[in-house]
Amino acid sequence: MNEAYYEVESRLERNPPRSEAKQRSYKWVGKAGIVLLWASLAAGAFALAHYYVGGVRAELERIQSANQQHTAELNRKLSELQQSLQSNMDAASSLQQQFAAVEGELNAVKEQMSLAGDSLSSTAESKKALNDRITDLSKELEGLRGAIKKLEEAARVY
Q1: Cα torsion at 10, 15, 21, 22 (round to 10°)?
Q2: Are 121 and 127 in contact (CB under 8 A)?
Q3: Per-residue pLDDT of the chain (158 residues; tens, 9 = 90+)
C-alpha cells in the first residue's frame, strides 16, 4: 500500500522538474537577447547621429560658400566705390582749378575796369563788352561753384 501512495503523490505534481541545462540555456538566451537589443539600439543611434551630422556639415558648407560669394561681391563693390570716389576727387580738383582761373579772370576784369575808370564811361561799347564778359564769367563761376558743391556732396555720400 505504500507504493500506491507514492504514485498518487507523484501525479499531483503539476510541472515535471526541468533539467539544469534547459534552465541555463533559457537564461543565456534572455541575456543574449537583451545585449543584442541594446547593441542594435546603439548602432541605430550612431547611424542617426552620423546622418544628422552629415546634414549639418552640408548646410555649413553651403553657408560658407554663400559667405565667400557675398564677400567677393562686397570686395568688388568696395573697389568700384573707391575708384568712383577717386574719379570724383579728381573731377573736384579740376573744377577747383577752373574756379580759381575764372575767379582770377574776374578779378583782372574788375581791376581793369577800376583802372580804366572815366575812359570806359565815355565808350559805351567797351563798357557793354566788359559788362557782358563779367556777366559771362560770373555765370561760369556760379556754375562751377554748383558743380563743386555737387561733387563734394557726392564724395560725402561715399
Answers
A1: 160
A2: yes
A3: 455 554 545 555 555 555 565 566 677 788 888 999 999 999 999 999 999 999 999 999 999 999 999 999 999 999 999 998 898 888 888 888 888 888 888 888 888 877 776 564 566 777 788 888 888 888 888 888 888 888 888 777 76
